[in-house]
Write the structure tokens for this entry.
Amino acid sequence: MTVTLANPLREGLRLARTPEPASLVIFGASGDLTSRKLVPALYNLALQHLLPASFGVIGSARRAMTEDVFRAELHDAVAEFSRTRPINEEVWTTFARSIRYVPTPDESGFNELGRVLARVDGEIGANGNRLFYLATPPAAYEPIIRAIGAHGLRGASGWSRVVVEKPYGHDLDSAMRLTSVVQEVFREDEVFRIDHYLGKETVQNILVLRFANSIFEPIWTRQFVDHVQITAAESIGIEERAGYYDSAGAMRDIVQNHLLQLLALVGMEPPSAFDDRSVRDEKVKVLRALRQIAPEEVGELTVRGQYGQGFIGGERVVGYRDEPGVAPNSQTETYVALKCFIDNWRWEGTPFYIRTGKRLPKRSTEIAIRFRVAPHRIFTREASEGLDANELVIRIQPDEGISLTFGAKVPVQGLRIRSVNMDFGYGESFMVDAPDSYETLILDALRGDATLFTRRDEVEQQWAFVDPILAGWHAGRQELATYAAGTWGPEQADALIARDSRTWRRP
Amino acid sequence: MTVMDEAFWGARAGSIDALERELGRLRRAAVAHAKERGQALARASVLNLVVYAEREIHARRAARAVADLALRHPSRAIIVLGDRSREGVLASLQLHCHVPQSDGAQPVLYEQILARVRGDFDERVASVVIPLLVPDLPVFLWWTGTPPSDARHVDDLVTLADRLIVDSADFARADLTLPEVARLARLRVGITDLNWARLTHWRELIAQFFDVPTWRPFLDGITGIRAGFAVDMDGRDIHPSQALLLLGWMASRLGWRPVEALAPSEAGGVLFKMARSDNAAVMVRLRPRFERGLDTGDVSGVRIQAALGRESAEFVIKRAPDQRHATATAVVGGVVRAERVVPLPALGIRELLVEELAIAGNDHVYEAALAALMALA
């Protein structure tokens, strides 16, 4: 182990540390994720001078293809999908020189990959630092990890890390099995399970809002909070993902990872430091405190729905079962609503309502903290007709921002009170293009910072919560409701929250 | 003149109270106008920006930059235009205010005030600015031109500010004015030099070489630095201040001390001998070069030479002829180990301000670079 001296020139610059020279090996290099997200993110990092001074990218997939073809395809992908356009040809040209392609249709391919890695190592002085990125369909994770082990692809020196894309398993058993395979080759601190929601600026900002300010945390408890609503609404359907989606459904696709992560960030106790261990310890604690919904409770605490035909933005769209690639009698849910409780001192008795759906009227992800009404009403009922309880809303996408509603006197003679909105928009206050979440996460993985990645015990807690609900559904304890595309979900979801004399927000 | 003035600077107001009323009226009108178009108008302010100018052309240029800036750093901008042309005339004050329209998708309301002060105004200028500041927001003072030394109005305005913005590239004699700027730092104000901001990308690129563990040891074995800076075609306008700041930065970070200033190697060039903390010599040469498309004084290239025992290395950053890119090359033991092209656009005033306004605290690294530079002079 070599000790690296500090770099005195770094002080005062944006990053305390840029990543060390390394090779990034992308498995699934001919796939969508690579061309839509990973390579555009790498290219944008290069534009911002955030990649190490010497860097190598090695793409690998089953398909035979020359390096020139691979580079040309990536060039076109960056031109189409990069957040900065047009493509800067000068920068691309030198960046593309660092890109290799090695087909791995069989075992001999992995041998060749090992040779190329060794050669690239020498050229760029990477000292054996390697980041393996699994961007393949999940069925290929285990064979690839075993091949990395069997062919000695970990460098003899330096660090090796692996990034695993979602879905990480399809239930608790499969997630644990995947972990045990991963751990044949990588230590837990070398495993970076990606949940791209955590790379979003506003999601990180939940922690800043809560723990860099002193005025919110004291009221962030059951005494002041009436309930919390977490919404992830999408207006799109399933696009070309029918094959995966029809076997997964909204619960596995969105709730198990993204929504439970948001719930953990909103509900967690203050960590003692902003580092990977402290933050993830607290997230695991709150996930552990999340009250299980037993299979026999799913009728009362959950709603599952599937969209029928309807209208989105004035266009007629087909129902889920008419989407290409979906079975005509599919029972897969495209909408989920849950009522959850966190059984701890802070949140006892405070419901967390979470919902997600496809083909809802608009795209919107937000967290709303609804506070209790003022304890004693001193204004007449008539005067306060337009008054609602205070609400703090954290908007995650689109239009990131935070707003707070409170009552104000309407400027007329006599007393009339109505709710007004104090609104903070990231866009208006900073007007900076927020970095794409993949840029943030790839950079963090190269630097070895796992704060924004999901740890083994987190993933397992998430599945442990989701599995009994899926089992209850599977046993037919909650029927699949339908909703028209372009509406806010099935009426059973409205009933779920109306039983508590509450309503869903309109995001 | 007044009609043109009002077209650019907005409605005229007779007093500060009247100005506040006028701003309130303009704000309501803008909100009503936005509502008609079905938009919400945010009145966002994250800072007070006071601009001090003594020439109308500087004031107008600043006003345009501030208007561009409003989207990123919505502010109340107070432009103080000092006019000493009529000496002896009793100080007079003319106020204009303005709620510029923005045409973006997210309309943001910001406010711009012009305070034209005439005659002997040194003593009273702060009293005009204080009531116009939005409470609780930080005050940034942007001084266009060279801040005069030992002047009452400079000290008064700087005392009000949390941060002073200057551009040492504009200083007629940077060698005389930079110490003056260092003196202002003692008034407990953070200082931003836009000329320093122009170096941020250079610093980043230089630092990156030494993030590579195998190259890091060369940082302690630097034997020479050569930097080029741009001059105009006939080589008359020589402004080495940016290149000097870059040198001051490296010297302060790496603990070098000046040994002697050697004879200029060529017209306008500077040659220094410095000593590392282990007393080995570092030869520094800053030389002017004509570069098409670069502003006078901008750094055009840096070459760092280093040796470790028998192994030598060179780290070179050179602007490409298109002036929008640079090539960063590391040569170790005579072999090119890494070479890449990175974007390095010349930044306009607006981009520089955007970056610098995001920093609220003191820039200790700049202050240290400045101090090292003073030691050289």
